[in-house]
Each structure stands twice: as structure tokens, then as C-alpha cells.
Amino acid sequence: MFKLPEAWVWDFWTVDDGDRYHLFFLYASRALRDPHARHYRASVGHAVSDDLVHWERVVDALVRSDAPAFDDLATWTGSVVQHPDGRWFMFYTGASLNADGANVQSIGYAVSSDLYTWDKAPGPVLRADGEWYERFAPAPEGNWHDEAFRDPWVFADPDGDGWHMLITARSAVGPASDLAETVDRGVVGHAWSADLENWELREPLTSPGQGFGQLEVLQPFVVDGRQVLLFNCLAGDASDRLKATGTEGGVWIATAESPLGPYDIAGAQRIDDPSLYVGKFIADRETGETKFMAFRNETGGSFIGEITDPYVVSWEGDRLVLTPSVSEAPLLESVTG
């Protein structure tokens, strides 16, 4: 388990450099006392491991920029990929407050030659456009508490045609099936790049009205030959229709035909204990197994802020099973939605 005595740790992403695993994580000081305040004080920390269990913290990766900047409030969740020329690109969320005091999110990147020292590029490189993606609007016109456009997950095109980015976003229009329920606008945002530096925003890969106000921290992954899309949504961000089923929030997977969809978002299943959040699949290079990690969210009304040891991932029919890979780790019961 990765935890810090002085700070809460939550969202994270990993990359394997072929020798060691790198863990990049959001953290904020426990001196804030209120764990909800952590979002506005988030920096990106860094740790390394040989086995996904024992972690050594190293120099931090990113901190917020001086104002005015798109990331002058906090630096949030992202992903790391390696350019063919050897450079590492970290795509991340920048948070800033607008004139209405709303949290506006946009996407930038930083570059490194060694995964330890990162140089930010001028940004942002992507923002919500207002045509396909919802922009913040104050009450009574507004539908959401912030401008959700974050959590960039970048991967190479399967056919070699550049790079794709999946984005946590909301549709600019309500779901056609229920225009009154404006919460139900969560979509998989999409952008494309030929070179990782210049990005073209494209229309969403999903439609609104699938049950989720937002699909956080997206990750396409192949688990034992089956393509899925992992995403995260808390119970409070679900549509009224989904809440009516009594389903709790957590980590979800949707079946998919490819990394770019189509995805069965409406038929997604929850795979973890609701006290865990922001799950990630990780390929274990030593065993060939798919591993799963998440951060410990609220337990008994208190925020924990630690990252779990890995679980081994397998299928039992259409049910995804998470089995502890470390003997002292608590058993995690998989749950279907």
C-alpha cells in the first residue's frame, strides 16, 4: 500500500519504463484538515517500484503555475506516454477559477527525458469548446458545479494513425431521451494528434443519457482478450434513473469493441467495493497478469487517502473478479451493477 503520513493521496496513474514502474499521484497536506479542500491544493507526486507493492517516493513531478495560468489553482489527473523519439509526455488537468468562482478545467502537458524532471509546455492545448462539450454557466442556466473537461488518457492509435486522447467531459446538450434530466450528460470526450504536441478536439465518442453525470479517469484496456473501458463515477453524480436502482458509486467497466468504442456505457458494471475509487488496470511485466489498483476513498464517513496494493484481475463468465496479490491485503468483493 502506498500512503503518506503527512498528506492525502488519491487519483493516480502509472507508466512502466521497462525497468521500473512509476506512480504519479495527486496529494495534498493533511494540515488542511478538511479532505474536501485537497482538490484545490493538489500537486503531482512521484514514486517508483520494482514490484507494484514496495514504493520509493522521489522528487515531485508537477505543481501549479503562478497566476494567471490555466493550472494556477491545482494540477490534476493525467497520463504518461513515450514519444517515438524517446521523450516522455505527461498530459494533465489544469484547474483555475473563473470570474464566477467556478472551477474551470483544461488540458496541458509537460515533457521529460527521464520521467523525473518535467518541463511544462505553454498551455492549455485543449479546452471545452461549447459546441460539443458543456461550458460552465452560473445559475439558473447552469447544469453542473464546474466545467468538467479533465483526466486526459492518451494512447497510440491501434493502426498507427497518431494519438488519441479520452477526456472526462459533459455533452453541450442534454440526453435526447430525457431533456429535463440535465445531470445525465456525461460523455467520453475525444481528441486526436499526429505528434502529441498539437491537438484537434473531436466530437464525443458516446452520447449523453447513459446514466452518468460524468465518467471520471477513463482507461481503455484489454483484460484477458476482452476490450473494456474503465471509468469512475460516484453515486451523487449518477442520473436519477441509476440512483433509483440503489446502485452505489465506484469503479465501473463497460464492454467495448475497440479502445475507441463503441462502448456499452448504459450496461456498465461496478467492479469494486464502494470505499475504493479511481481504479487503474496495470500490465504486470513479470507475471503477464493484469493488476488493479485504486485509492481508498471514504470509510465510515472519513476520507482515507491511500493507494491499495495490487489485485489480480480475472474473469468468471462475464463477471470481473479482483483477487488480492498480497497476503495481508483485504479481500475485495467484486460487484456487478
From TrEMBL:
GO MF terms held by the record: beta-fructofuranosidase activity
Superkingdom field: Bacteria
Naturally occurring in which organism (per UniProt): Humibacillus xanthopallidus
Record key words, sorted: Glycosidase, Hydrolase
Family: Belongs to the glycosyl hydrolase 32 family.
PANTHER family linked to this entry: BETA-FRUCTOSIDASE
UniProt-listed SUPFAM superfamilies: Arabinanase/levansucrase/invertase
E.C. designation(s): 3.2.1.26
GO biological process, one term: carbohydrate metabolic process
Occurrences of domain Glycosyl hydrolase family 32 N-terminal (ranges): 19-233
Protein name per the record: beta-fructofuranosidase
Signal peptide segment: none
InterPro entries noted in UniProt: GH32_Enzymes (IPR051214), Glyco_hydro_32 (IPR001362), Glyco_hydro_32_N (IPR013148), Glyco_hydro_beta-prop_sf (IPR023296)
Class of the enzyme per the UniProt entry, highest EC level: hydrolase
Hydrolase recorded as keyword: yes
